[in-house]
């Protein structure tokens, strides 16, 4: 039954991508690549979720992040003092201290890997390997690997020399990849809110799923001139000293932590206001999020979530779309036990990405700061960008449903 539901979910997701395709005649031109990419997703989902070796790898990664979070807690405790502990000496359960501030430490480690050239080497190597299976140019393949490490705004800095040469089609692909991914600096925060196996699975599957969706929703044929514009220039960190890079990445991590904190305060408060406003309407006994759940309920059901759980799942999916993944994850934590194991897996992986409306401004602003005309292009296809990136999450959730 899971196999049949999974096939229906994949077909439904690809149909949604085809409906919004910029060229429906070319949408499935690279069908062989699409099938290969879907097969790779299924293989990775099986290895990560259904084998002892996969679970062992995830366990090592989770333990590694737990160690890092422990070190981060020491730095937070030094700065925040007694605020981090209760009267009996136990750690205080404060989201800002335990989830957001550790992002600074992980960001600092990324800076060290960047300075030692280890990270750029890994990203370039992955880009070369991905060109063998994606059916796309090296620039698109490089960007897919870079996006899941650097994040949706930072990745464009590494492409600043290419931005003026990019067509709208290629720019959409790069933007969809960055929105459908997550940055390495924030993975530790996700692992404190979701089961690590689902975080790791989502990161890997989103990488390949982005190529599948882009093939359908944004098909194009590269010219020789466009392919020639794929040389990745030097890193923006070139020429900086170790402590310059370390300081930059520490501050970048702090900015991310404070930005997420501000977004959470604003969005959670606004949702509470909307929920209360709905309840004030005479005869209405459902909240704003309940309404969103009913709207997204058919989508949740068609990708394989049981009908009895589809309304709540749909509400979480919609909350992520209109706010961000952290708001949805916090809501999910409160009701996770009400879902079956399969639904927990599918919802968890769906939540692990930057696909939401607020990301339009982040990406468009980042690109505009590097090349004004390209930033305007991103802003114009912003809604389609969120649509495509959300389909990547739908596809990942569907694939995970095969093995949950």
From TrEMBL:
The keyword Cell inner membrane does not apply. It is found in: Cell membrane. Keywords: Cell membrane, Membrane, Transmembrane, Transmembrane helix. One of its GO terms (cellular component) is plasma membrane. The chain crosses the membrane at residues 34-53, 65-83, 95-116, 198-217, 256-279, 291-308, 345-365, 385-403. Residues 8-83 form the Concentrative nucleoside transporter N-terminal domain. Residues 198-401 form the Concentrative nucleoside transporter C-terminal domain. The keyword Transmembrane applies. It is a multi-pass membrane protein. Residues 96-195 form the Nucleoside transporter/FeoB GTPase Gate domain. It comes from the Bacteria. InterPro entries: C_nuclsd_transpt, CNT_C_dom, CNT_N_dom, Gate_dom. Its main location: membrane. One of its GO terms (molecular function) is nucleoside transmembrane transporter activity. Belongs to the concentrative nucleoside transporter (CNT) (TC 2.A.41) family. This is Nucleoside permease. It comes from Salinicoccus sediminis.
């Amino acid at each position: 039954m899971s196999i049949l539901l999974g096939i229906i979910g994949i077909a439904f997701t690809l149909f949604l991508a085809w409906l919004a395709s910029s060229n429906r005649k070319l949408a499935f031109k690279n069908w062989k690549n699409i099938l290969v990419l879907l097969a790779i997703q299924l293989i990775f989902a099986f290895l990560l979720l259904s084998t002892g070796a996969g679970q062992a790898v995830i366990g090592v990664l989770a333990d590694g992040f737990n160690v890092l979070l422990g070190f981060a807690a020491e730095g937070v405790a030094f700065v925040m003092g007694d605020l981090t502990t209760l009267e009996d000496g136990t750690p205080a359960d404060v989201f800002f201290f335990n989830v957001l501030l550790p992002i600074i430490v992980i960001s600092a480690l990324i800076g060290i890997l960047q300075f030692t050239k280890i990270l750029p080497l890994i990203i370039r190597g992955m880009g070369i390997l991905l060109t063998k299976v994606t059916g796309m140019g090296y620039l698109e393949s490089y960007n897919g690997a870079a996006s899941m490490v650097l994040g949706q705004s930072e990745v464009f800095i590494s492409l600043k020399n290419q931005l003026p040469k990019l067509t709208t089609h290629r720019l959409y692909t790069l933007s969809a990849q960055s929105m459908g991914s997550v940055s390495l600096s924030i993975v530790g925060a996700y692992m404190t809110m979701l089961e690590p196996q689902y975080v790791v699975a989502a990161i890997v599957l989103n990488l390949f799923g982005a190529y599948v969706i882009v093939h359908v929703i944004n098909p194009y044929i590269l010219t020789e001139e466009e392919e020639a514009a794929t040389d990745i220039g030097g890193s923006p960190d070139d020429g900086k000293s170790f402590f310059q890079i370390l300081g930059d990445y520490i501050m970048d991590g702090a900015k991310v932590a404070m930005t997420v904190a501000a977004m959470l305060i604003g969005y959670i408060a606004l949702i509470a206001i909307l929920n209360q406003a709905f309840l004030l309407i005479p005869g209405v006994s459902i909240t704003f999020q309940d309404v969103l759940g009913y709207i997204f309920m058919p989508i949740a059901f068609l990708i394989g979530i049981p009908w009895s759980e589809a309304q709540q799942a749909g509400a979480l999916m919609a909350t992520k779309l209109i706010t961000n993944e952290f708001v949805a994850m916090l809501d999910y934590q409160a009701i996770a036990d009400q879902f079956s194991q399969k639904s927990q897996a599918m919802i968890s992986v769906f939540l692990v990405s930057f696909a939401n409306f607020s990301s339009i401004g982040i990406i468009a602003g980042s690109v505009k700061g590097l090349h004004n005309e390209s930033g305007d292009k991103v802003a114009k296809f912003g809604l389609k960008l969120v649509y495509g990136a959300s389909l990547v999450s739908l596809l990942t959730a569907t694939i995970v449903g095969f093995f949950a």
